[in-house]
Each structure stands twice: as C-alpha cells, then as structure tokens.
Design brief:
Layout: H1 2-19, H2 26-36, E1 47-54, E2 69-71, E3 94-104, H3 108-111, E4 115-133, E5 140-145, E6 151-153, E7 156-159, E8 162-165, E9 176-178, E10 182-183, E11 189-191, H4 202-211, E12 213-216, E13 244-246, E14 251-260, E15 270-273, E16 285-292, E17 295-299, E18 318-322, E19 326-329, E20 337-345, E21 349-352, E22 361-369, E23 373-376, E24 389-392, E25 402-406
Parallel strand pairs: 4-7, 4-22, 5-8, 5-23, 6-24, 7-9, 8-10, 9-11, 12-14, 13-15, 14-16, 15-17, 16-18, 17-19, 18-20, 19-21, 20-22, 21-23, 22-24
Antiparallel strand pairs: 1-2, 1-3, 3-4, 4-25
Helix pairs in contact: 1-2
Length: 414
Amino acid sequence: ASKNKWQNGVEAAALAGVWHMCDDDFEAVARQIAQENGIPHTEADGLAVHVGYYDAGGLYDDFSEYKDFEIDPDPDTSLNETLSTEDDPVYNNAVMVFLNADVSTFLAGIFGKDEVQVSAQAVAYAKGYGIYSFSENDEISVQFMRDGFPEFENCDIHSNNDIRFESEPDLNGSNVTAAGEITGCPDGIFPVEKISIKPIDWDELKQRAEENGAVLTFSDFEGYTFDNPNIINGNRCSNPGRNYVFELKEGDHNNAVYYFESEGTPSPRVIYMGQFRPPASHYSVTNLTIASEIKVKFIGLQLPYSHPYLGGEDDDVVFIFCKENIEFIGTSIRNQKIKGVVFRTEGDLMFDFGTVKNYDYVVYARFMADGKITIKRGQNYPYPAPEVFLFSTKFAPPCPPIGVRLGKLEPAGT
C-alpha cells in the first residue's frame, strides 16, 4: 500500500518538476508536490530529485545506468555535462524523483520485523515543439515548400489543421502531429486533438521592458535617426517609408526587452530588422526579447561567417514576440546557424531561404504561430542546392509550450 502511494507521489512530483525546469526551482516544486501527496519529501527522509536528459527519440545508445535517462552530474547548468560535446550540446529535459525509505509494518508481533524498505521512482520529460501552428482557420497551417528539404533533430512539428511536405522529410527521432491531415510524410505521424497554449502576456512584456529595456514608439524614430547606444549599433535606426529600420547592438543584452508599440504608427507598419555590417564582423546578438505590436520583417540578412546575427552560444536565447506577421525574405545564407531563437507570433510566420548557396544550413530555433507557418527554399540558380536543411531545437532546455510525459526507467542493456 505504501509503495503504491509512493509511486503515485513520485510521478506527480516528477511531472511538476519538469513544468518548472526553466524557472530554476524545479527541485523545490517537486519536493512540495511530494509533500502534498503525503509521501516523504526531504533529502533526509530519502527523497532524491535529479535533473537530466531523457532520450525519447532513441537518438542515443543505452546510457550508463538507465536505458534512456542520464543524470546530470552538475545540475547548476542547463547542459548535460555527461552527454555534451563541444560540437553537440545536450540540454537537460527531464526530472527523476527517487524515494527509498523504511516503512513501519503491522507484522512486528508475528515476524519480529517492525520495518521494511520501500522504494519508488519516476522520470518525466519535456518535449519542446519546434514548429507549432495553433491556427484553426487555414486548411493547411504548416507547409514546407520545394524539394530537397528539410531534416529535423529533436524538433517535433504540430498543426491544429493540416501539414504538407512537398518532399519527404528526415525526422531523426522527431514526431509530426496534426489535428487534420498530414501529406508527404509517411513516418512519425500521430493524429491528435487540437492543442491550445497560454496566450502571449503583452502587459507582462511591456512591464519587463519598462524595468529592463525600452518601450519604443514610432515617434522615437522621427527624423530618420534613433540614437541609443544601449540598444542599437551607432546610427542604424530610421523610419524611411514610414517603417522602422532597426539594427540591434551586438553582444549580450542582459535579458533586456524592447517593446514596440503600434499607437501612433502610420501605415504601412513594419519593423525591418537586419544586419548592415559586412560578414567579416562576426556580428552576434544574444539574451534579449523583441516584443512588437506591429509586423516584423527580416530582409536581406548577410549573416557573418562565424556567428549568427540572432542567437549565441549555450542557452543565450533570443525571443521574438509579435502581434502580427513575422517574415524572413531573401535571406542570403553561407553555412550559418540561427542559433537559440524562439519566434512566437499571433499572426503568420513565413521563412523564405531566398538565394541559398551550396552549404549546410542549420536552424536552431522554435517557430510558433497562431496563424499559418510556411517554410520554403527560394530559387537556387546558379548555385547547387544545399546538402542539409536541418531544423533543431537543441539550443536550450525545452521551455513552454511543451508536452510533459512520463518516461520509463529501464536498466541499461535491457
């Protein structure tokens, strides 16, 4: 009876811990849920809480102790030090709760044994969706256009309507789910119900901008210049054609939020974000959030040779939130990565590779839209097609929106 109760308790604690992995208090939450379920909850009581990586997609061979779960020896970082290499970072996505303690028995008078040892363990893991459309209005809400791509790695794809691939993708352990039909992808398909997530909290984003960052209006850009060395590189912002032209300051922005208001902005209303420096500058922007009430367009990005324009190393994530559409137009790519960027829009999202040259291209990003998501490869003439179009979410621990599931703790080698 105690074991059954404890098993239910450790499962609840592990699930709760995963939901809070990105809040830095997963262990406290797991222990609190254990206590609320009436099981021992302190370390002295015999309850252990471990963070680690769960291999739900079967990308790895058996780990050291468990078949699909590897405990992280250094829980103070988001990387799993046991599995990560310099070229292949692996971020923790799971929480294991283990309880091992003595329980008083009612049989002491008969057998002379007043305690027995009981144990229970559970692991729960998060799966962060890489390409995720919540649209309920379009017949096809996720579409991959042109032949020869893509490949996926740790990048689940979901649509609340239909998904269409014009060429069969290489899933590499990723899953494709849809509430409607899926065409062009014979493997990895799981029909599901429509999924909803928590909407964007614009008031919270604006408050964060007021505390650390800036709230910007169109009038800030009048006169074709906007001079703020904490936000931009020199005199790189203006308002030609009644639109923002915005080049962010390179480097770490220390979690700043830049909030663009729509009030007072004439039509057309677009933020053009791009890099105006030559590729040799190795320009990189990390640790910031853009929250825009108006359309955001990335156009003609000349990405540097060594580092991406958006994103950085480890989990220095860039967040782009938008009330309208997000578009990538005419992107010129040379063996580059958009690394560690989360795009979330209440409109449509369109990613056009433009004139793509014959280099591998990896997108370390998550695309989430309330509307339609279209990913297409532009004309390659006169260049050959790239060998790889790889979409991956392996740039940080999976954070909401996520799916949280219980895994299995099978011994290695079974």
